[in-house]
Every structure is written in structure tokens, then in C-alpha cells.
Amino acid sequence: MHKRTVGLLSLGAAILSLLVAAVPTGAAVPAGTVVAEQRVPRTVVLDGKRLVHAKQRLDQGDPVRRRALADLVQQADNWLGKGPWSVTDKTQTPPSGDKHDYLSQAPYWWPSQPKTPDNPLGCPYVSKDGQRNPEADLIPDHSERAYVFASAYTLSLAWYYTGQAAYARHAADILRTWFVTPETRMNPRLINAQFVPCGDDGRAAGLIEFSLGFTSLLDAAAILNTGAPGWTPADHDGFRSWSTQFLDWLTTSDFGKAESAAVNNHGTFADMQVAAIALAVGRPQLARQTVAQARTTRIDQGISPDGSQPQEIRRTRSYHYSAFNLLALARLADVGRHVGINLWKYQGPDGQSVFKAVDFLLPAATGTAPWPYPESKFEIWKANDVIHAAADAGDRDAQAALPLLTPPPGGDLWTLRPAAELLSSELF
């Protein structure tokens, strides 16, 4: 997109913010005013009614949401002119032989031997937990997939709250290119994700690269489907068809089954992804079944009575992964709300609960005490969204902690998209 166009859109957003700011703080809708009924997005993680409420509060001049909107618009403007992206952009051919297959290299695996003419790759590769091999960044699918997830979600929300058509059209183009258009779409499977050089052509662990962000696109598509310019019924049908095929692969393939059986954050994210996609494509019973079984597999077995998460605190980045697993649990609880299961209120036989796991992070997340486990890159704001989610669900300790939180990079968007999202300075 031309720079002048981007500048005009940014100016439009600034004017919108000024107009909204002109409404007195906390102003009520004047008596007799007819408020147009908003079409509620049929989201599967976000609560569509809360989005409608947030939009109404913005129209009334709510100052917290005005600040969040300014941050959201700035992020959306940064995505205009970037993309769309496609798995066919890469020069590498996956082991499958099909460039429409997603390809990524296992990030924590390194050559164990010097690279020589007889062993140019330095085989065999060995795992070094938490140490990212820069070789993994040479394959564009990994980074472009992250751009698709972040941009389409941000742009769809920006359109919803500002009404600026350019945001919706670009979000639609990004989703259509990666998931719908035959020449550029990705195959709905992950058979070559996180391959290990001179080892596996792909691994079940590679599914985490989609499960941590794809569910945001389900909500982005639902938001666009409320009447966004540029998003057509054919786009909706194509994206839904891709999601249905992907769900079938996740639930029947060896990789999908292995990832769901994982006892750490991989398994939690796998459950969250299956439940959310199932709800989005009209399989609510599968969604409910997946959420229900998480009470045993993810809470009883994954959280200790004191709130620590044994599988996560043993990592070299224990704070990051503790918050990361809770991110998936919080989003799974959001899906549960749609199907009548309250994961927040559940307590295991020894008192295990998601509330306890969140509370375990509070001293470090508020800066009142150091994190007591190994963490090679401590970022205090990593747990902010899961604390917001717990506070919303009734956790009084989390509610008391909210004023003490350090805002994440890009600002706190919770009031405009009240569901836990990945807060990170890194590309996942």
C-alpha cells in the first residue's frame, strides 16, 4: 500500500480518536436516543457481547477504552502495507515435496559436531532447551505465519471499533491468501513443522506453532463476518472449510494425537485449539468433551496444590512457560464458557485450580517478589493477560494485582479484546 494511503488512514484514526475524546468522560447516552443494535460476532474465544459492550462504551467516551483504541489503531496501522503472505513464498521445498505444506525447523535443536565437508550440517542435532537456533529463522513460513496471526486479528479488531474499511479489507486479503486462494493457500496439515535436520521430517511438537495463535483467527473471521467490507460469503465458506479439514487432521493424525497426549503446555494448547475449532465449525459436542476432560488432564495432573506447574517450572524459561500454559488454560476456559463448562471454578481432588496457578505468579508479575525458578529472559508482563482473565472470573487476588501490573509492549488492549493473548517480545 502507498505510504500516502497509510498516512491518511493513520490521520483518519487520529480524527476518530479526537471525536471520541470530545464526549465527556463517563457520559451517558442522552434520554430518548435510540442506540443501533450491534450485530454480535459469533466468536469462540472472545465473548462477542463484550465486544459490543466495549464498542458502546467507546461511543460514550470511556477513557480507558480510548487509550486502548489508540494503541490498537497504532498496531493496525503498522500492518497496513505489509503482507499478504503465503506458504508458497519460501524457496525451500518441504520433505513432502509440496510447497503448500507449512515448513519450520525445530528452534531449540543445534548441530552437535563441527561442520565439515563430510558432515556439512554438523549432525546429529541435539536439543538445548530455551536456546533458539538462528537457523530456524531462515525458513519464512515460521515468521510469516506469526505475521498472519497477529495482523489479521489486530486489523479485524481495528475495523470493528473504528469502521475504517481499509483495516477489514487488508485483514480479509491476509486470511484469503493464506487459507483460501488455491494458488497460495496452505495445506490444512502440519506434517513438516519443526523438522530436525538430519533427523525427523516433522514433529508433533510443531503443532504448537499453530495452536498458540490460530484460534485468534477464528475470532477474527467471526468479527469480519459481521459485515466487514472485503470479506465475502465465499471467503467465509473457504476459511470454514479449511478449519474443518484442519480439525479432522488434528483429531485423526498421529501428530495430532501425540500432541493432545502431551502432559505440558503442548497438550493444553492442543486441547484449546481442538475445542475452539470444533465450536467454530459446528461441532459443539467435541468442544464440550475437550473442555471437560481438561479438568483431569490439565488441572488435576498439570497443577500442584500450591499452584505451581511442575512441567513448566522445570524449564530454563520457567516463568515464561508457566504463563504460557495458563494462557492456553484461560482461553480453553473461554471456549468452555460458550459450551456451559466453568473451568475457573473447578477444583481438583487436592485443591488444584487455575486460580491457584495464576495466584502463584502474582508476586513475580507485580514485582513484589523475585521469581524463584530458572528464567533466562524474565519479562514481567508475560502473565498480564492471564491475570486479567482470572480477575474477570472472580479471583480477588488477581483483581487486587491489576493496578500493579507493568503494561506490555504495545499497550494493554484487554478492555477491547478481553481474552488472554500471547504477550511476547519474541516471534513464536
Automatic annotation (TrEMBL):
One of its GO terms (molecular function) is lyase activity. Gene3D superfamilies: Chondroitin AC/alginate lyase. Residues 83-107 are annotated as: Disordered. The keyword Phosphoprotein does not apply. It holds the Pfam family Alginate_lyase. Residues 1-27 form the signal peptide. Keywords: Lyase, Signal. Residues 86-371 form the Alginate lyase domain. The keyword Lyase applies. This is Alginate lyase family protein.
